[in-house]
């Protein structure tokens, strides 16, 4: 089947969920039907029709938005959607529970795909199960196209591209800092956390994926010099201030290492990356770093215990589908700073990138990151050596995604530090 035989450019799958709704709203506000053949999909026709009514009421350009209906428990319905679509853009998590049949359908149909997953164990399964067939069928499966892990992955790519152009050498190490921001967490995101800890408690392969810093690298290359994510308060080697562990480091660091491996190690096999949360200098910075590290440790310990995990899901966490309002999603912000250190012909150098937006990182900003990832894929607006495979944002799309995000208000700057 050729692309000209397909009805839809992009299907937003899971469009009635919180992240899916924000993504559908963004795409219909940013693009018209003459620019993008868009459809929205899910399993509940009544809810999807209500969403379409809302989308068309907000837009003068869209008189109607096509609807597709399917179910993760009905693989043939997903195959039909994949065969009729150029790019499936999915927000349906937890991906460990619901994601595999859709990836399989896209791989079989040679359909490009992007998602929001931060579930390392499931990405590892996707790589091992589908990468070879995705390469053969020309299906670009690009995981982690939201706050996990576009800022870290593209920020690193920006730093390394600048270093190569300016100093003829890559950075030997990169540090990623969550320098600021405000936002909220939805029930779907917390459900994904629950699935991740559930898998780690019951599945040896999932535990190995979370223990090994190189678990997302290609087969046969899952070892290296990086010891893994920071777990304790630490005085940062580049900024000289105290830092705490980052809750996103287990995902983002592994995605960045996979990008380096897939691209053929342009940053070297000894390349190191780490992510942390800066807390300041002096005694206050040290105390804050200790408090953050302690809080993350307690949360991880609690989520590792089945009865506690189940009680949190039942009585504390919001239900999947619950999340911030449109106003709340537009009121947040985030700033990721990436510092790279290398050695050129004239001695050591440091490169700095800033990646951020004036929107809630998990929803308002993520809707743009995911939506523009899908547009890059459908238009072939990519800087990538790959026509297919299980890829990362940096290896599967590259700097054109940063260009598109700048056009919609993101900061994506890089220069000497």
UniProtKB/TrEMBL annotation:
It holds the Pfam family Sacchrp_dh_NADP. Residues 10-142 form the Saccharopine dehydrogenase NADP binding domain. Transmembrane segments: none annotated. Gene3D superfamilies: NAD(P)-binding Rossmann-like Domain (3.40.50.720). One of its GO terms (cellular component) is plasma membrane. Residues 216-245 are annotated as: Disordered. InterPro entries: NAD(P)-bd_dom_sf, Saccharopine_DH-like_oxidrdct, Sacchrp_dh_NADP-bd. This is Saccharopine dehydrogenase. It comes from Halorubrum californiense DSM 19288.
């Amino acid at each position: 089947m050729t692309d000209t035989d397909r009805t839809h450019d992009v299907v937003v799958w899971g469009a009635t969920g919180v992240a899916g709704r924000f993504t559908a709203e963004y795409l219909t506000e940013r693009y018209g039907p003459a620019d993008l053949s868009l459809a929205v999909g899910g399993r509940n026709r009544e809810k999807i029709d209500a969403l379409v009514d809302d989308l068309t009421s907000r837009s003068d350009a869209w008189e109607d938005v096509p609807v597709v209906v399917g179910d993760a428990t009905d693989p043939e319905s997903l195959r039909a959607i994949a065969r009729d679509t150029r790019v499936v853009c999915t927000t349906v998590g937890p991906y460990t529970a619901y994601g595999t049949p859709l990836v399989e359908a896209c791989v079989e149909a040679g359909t490009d795909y992007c998602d929001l997953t931060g579930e390392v164990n499931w990405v590892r399964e996707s790589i091992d199960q589908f990468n070879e067939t995705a390469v053969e069928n020309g299906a670009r499966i690009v995981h982690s196209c939201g706050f996990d892990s576009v800022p870290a992955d593209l920020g690193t790519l920006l730093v390394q591209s600048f270093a190569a152009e300016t100093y003829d050498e890559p950075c030997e190490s990169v540090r990623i800092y969550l320098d600021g921001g405000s936002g909220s967490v939805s029930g779907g995101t917390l459900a994904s956390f629950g699935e991740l800890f559930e898998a780690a408690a019951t599945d040896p392969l999932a535990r190995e994926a979370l223990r090994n810093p190189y678990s997302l690298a290609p087969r046969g290359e899952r070892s290296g010099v990086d010891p893994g994510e920071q777990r304790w308060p630490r005085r940062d080697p580049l900024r000289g201030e105290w830092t705490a562990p980052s809750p996103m480091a287990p995902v983002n660091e592994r995605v960045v290492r996979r990008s380096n491996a897939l691209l053929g190690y342009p940053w070297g096999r000894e390349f190191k990356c780490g992510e942390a949360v800066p807390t300041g200098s002096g005694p206050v910075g040290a105390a804050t770093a200790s408090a953050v590290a302690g809080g993350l440790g307690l949360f991880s310990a609690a989520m590792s215990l089945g009865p506690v995990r189940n009680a949190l899901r039942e009585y504390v966490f919001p239900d999947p589908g619950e999340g911030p309002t449109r106003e709340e999603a537009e009121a947040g912000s985030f700033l990721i700073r990436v510092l790279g250190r290398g050695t050129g012909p004239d001695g050591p150098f440091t490169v700095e990138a800033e990646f951020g937006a004036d929107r809630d990182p998990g929803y308002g900003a993520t809707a743009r990151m995911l939506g523009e990832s899908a547009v890059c894929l459908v238009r072939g607006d990519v800087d990538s050596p790959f026509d297919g495979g299980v890829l990362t944002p940096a290896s599967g799309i590259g700097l054109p995604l940063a260009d598109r995000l700048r056009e919609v208000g993101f900061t994506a700057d890089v220069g000497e530090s």
